[in-house]
Design a protein that fits this description.
The protein is mostly helical. It contains nine helices and no strands.
């Protein structure tokens, strides 16, 4: 006799399709991954631990992922995509002709606000290192995106940008590298600095760049 709770393949179960249930389980793995990768670390996390944290079986893990690295990649990308979306939203307010101190300050504040979650900081700043060539490539791709956002916001307010594309990339990498190091130091030392102090300290770099390159 068929249980009243069972459902043929492709049919809804408790108001959810198989695809919706699979997506729901995947979300539970993502949240479990954020908790474990962001607290214990990727290399200390096993499939068994992840499944226990998610309240699911390994059968469902392998339904969603082919490996732990694939799960880490999704958690990592979710964190960074969330940060990028927040920064892009701030950029929609771009305007005016003076140096966009308020805008740059808001972009930095948005970034550090996300990093105040220790799990996000650990996943984004530390756990991607040394996992694989693919993770290294992914990390560098996101660095390039952050460089494009910050340099785009800066050069929009310089009338005659004096740097070529390669020089702009070098400047952007130097600035983003400084932000990353400041974030790592902040997280490792238990968020010993006020967010405002981080923002104000890094703003000096942007103001100095504006003075050297000139403004409209």
């Amino acid at each position: 006799m068929t249980s009243s709770n069972s459902s043929p393949s492709g049919r809804s179960y408790r108001g959810m399709t198989p695809e919706q249930r699979a997506a729901q389980r995947r979300e539970r793995f993502v949240e479990a991954g954020l908790n474990l990768f962001g607290n214990e670390g990727f290399h200390a996390t096993t499939v068994r631990k992840l499944c226990k944290e998610a309240g699911l079986t390994d059968r469902y893990f392998y339904e969603s992922y082919s490996s732990m690295e694939e799960c880490l990649i999704e958690v990592y990308e979710r964190c960074l995509q969330g940060i990028l979306a927040r920064l892009q939203k701030s950029l929609t307010n771009l305007g005016g002709t003076d140096f966009p101190e308020e805008l740059i300050s808001k972009l930095l504040n948005d970034f550090f606000a996300e990093m105040e979650d220790p799990r996000v900081a650990k996943v984004c700043m530390f756990e991607a290192e040394g996992v694989s060539d693919h993770m290294h490539t992914l990390y560098n791709d996101y660095i390039r995106r952050f460089v494009m956002i910050l340099m785009g916001a800066s050069r929009a307010y310089v009338k005659d940008w004096p740097l070529d594309e390669e020089e702009t990339e070098v400047l952007g990498n130097a600035v983003v590298g400084g932000i990353i190091q400041a974030t790592r130091n902040w997280a490792v030392n238990g968020y010993h600095l006020k967010r405002e102090s981080l923002v104000n300290g890094i703003m000096v770099i942007f103001k100095g760049t504006q003075l050297l390159l000139g403004k409209q």
